[in-house]
UniProtKB/TrEMBL annotation:
Stated name of the protein: Complex I NDUFA9 subunit family protein
All copies of domain NAD(P)-binding, residue ranges: 7-149
InterPro entries xrefs: ComplexI_NDUFA9_subunit, NAD(P)-bd_dom, NAD(P)-bd_dom_sf
Organism listed in the record: Halobellus litoreus
Domain of life of the source: Archaea
Entry-linked Pfam families: NAD_binding_10
Length: 309
């Protein structure tokens, strides 16, 4: 198939491009800076910005399948403020869907997020929900993925956790009880590729998570243990965290704000993990602990030291 990966030079995009290329597809990566050396040999590169329809529309010509992976991180306040989530996720998806419809693309895969809801509690969640509505109301044969946090080489989840919860003493809002279900990018990329190769995935919305549901405090301990260090979690009352992040969000350059506080008030885990739709058992997935200890890809390689589930 001729496949266009919008956002193809990002963390998940580069892994997906490699997987698609390995399967023999003709792959094109579209991004604002497509000269990334991380893209595998043989992947075509095209420059475009989802905020500017005219810059992306021609890249869709002749394509059989399109992935829309463009996304801002929910972990940090974006440059330009929270309104950028709407600019990139909702309006960007409008442009991508419009171009896919114009060029009669056969298959469309949208990267969304757990909890996506147009009426959700954060700008990120609301924009992801609005983007899903655009996709489901289109004429495209779509598949939507709602993953929990994704980790792997080049990802930001581990480094973000180290920033939020430093070694030895970590002051975490609410004691770090918010739960996540981290999934390794090496497990996610094949599922994404499967979505365009089997008709059974058309019209499906999949919640995808890793094998363990871990609190932020448990994740911090795993990460620091892998570095040979310990950490003691000191609870910060949520009310105090709200004040701190609200004030911090007003300071230019401060990386977090009210939305990051709100996001810590609800779990980022699946109700039903849909990895079995791709013939994958939960026990086959790489745990965060295995990845941190250099054993990513080992089937059943190391359950987490502690799980909250």
């Amino acid at each position: 198939m001729k496949v266009l990966v919008v956002g193809g030079s990002g963390f998940i995009g580069t892994n997906l491009c490699a997987e698609l290329k390995r399967r023999g597809h003709d792959v094109t990566a579209l991004s604002r800076s497509p000269s990334s050396d991380d893209l595998p040999k043989g992947v075509n590169k095209v420059m475009g910005n989802v905020r500017e329809y005219g810059s992306i529309r021609e890249a869709f010509e002749g394509k059989d399948a399109v992935f829309n992976l463009v996304a801002l991180s929910p972990l940090f306040k974006p440059s330009g403020g929270d309104k950028m989530h709407d600019e990139i996720h909702r309006k960007g998806t409008e442009h991508v869907v419009r171009a896919a419809e114009k060029h009669e693309v056969d298959r469309f895969v949208q990267m969304s997020a757990l909890g996506a809801d147009p009426d959700g509690p954060t700008a990120y969640i609301r924009s992801k929900g609005a983007a899903e509505e655009i996709v489901t109301e289109s004429v495209l044969d779509y598949t939507i993925f709602r993953p929990s946090v994704v980790f792997g080489e080049g990802g930001e989840f581990v480094s973000f956790t180290k920033l939020l919860a430093p070694p030895y003493v970590s002051a975490l809002p609410g004691g770090g009880k918010t739960r996540f279900q981290p999934i390794w990018v090496g497990d996610l990329a094949p599922m994404l590729a499967d979505a365009i190769e089997d008709e059974k995935h058309v019209g499906q919305i999949y919640e995808i998570g890793g094998p363990d549901k871990l609190t932020l405090a448990e994740i911090a301990r795993l990460i620091h243990d892998s570095d040979g260090r310990s950490t003691t979690v000191v609870p910060v009352p949520m009310g105090l965290a709200k004040i701190g992040l609200s004030i911090g969000g007003l300071v230019p350059g401060f990386p977090m704000g009210k939305d990051q506080y709100r996001s810590l008030q609800f779990d980022n885990v699946t109700d039903d993990n849909d990895v079995d739709a791709f013939g994958v058992g939960v026990g086959e997935l790489t745990t965060l602990k295995a990845y941190l200890n250099g054993r990513a890809g080992d089937v059943g390689g190391g359950s987490a030291a502690a799980t909250s589930d």
